[in-house]
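Appendix B. One record, verbatim.
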Amino acid sequence: MPLSKDFVFSANNLQDYLDCPRRFELKYILKQSWPAITSQPVQEMEYKIHMGNRFHKIVHQFLSGIPAIVLENSLEDPELINWFTKFQIFIKTYLDFPYFSEHTITMPFEGMRLIAVFDFITFNGDKQIIIGDWKTTTRVPKPYLYLQSIQSLLYPFMANEVRGYIFPQADILLQEDLSMVYWFPAFPEKTIALEYSKAKYSKSQKVLSSLISEIAEKEHGTFKKTINDKRCAFCQYRSLCERGIQAGILEDTEDDPGDNSGIENIDFDQVEEIAF
């Protein structure tokens, strides 16, 4: 068994496994560093990651009580200012209720551990738990890609499991009283809502149990490369795996309907690595 008992499963590493088991092995088990860029032009990629991280930090500061005017005066990028302005409009209806920002939870599961970092979680006046997640993509979001992601399965499941610890008054809620919202500062009108239910809870539990058992039982050398080599264009290990040496170009996928095989795999919102 390649995984130690203290390994922690997250939406990021589970999605990596689903996209390419070999990438998961190289990145999280072998901890293989590889000097390759994930996309080009490099400056644009770095800018997008910077914007994603910066936006999450500004929003967290705002939700932690720093006045909006103070934060606005610290911003110079017009796009970031615009995003923050739109966010204040969106979040206004949620601020009258108990909430947490950048809230990390961990829990035991199947002999391992799970972790989630909620950008936002609240218990509102309708006695519902709502998870908010901010995505700073500059591409028009495709709902099916988000709704089919492992994050959409993991986050509601974990919120349901620990709801009594986050909001003690919510301990008696049913699964139907929980939902998740993906919000996009570049496309505020494209908000994606995910409703939860008892059936979805049962499915999530089964899928996570099966997936984690599958990963934990794999031996070194049995983590196969993805058969969808489109995913390799935006993977830092592509040359190591002999899947090409040239990084994917961001603009090449702008009009591609896609199947979660290219740029959609790049996480511009690397909040799990941010220490606020």
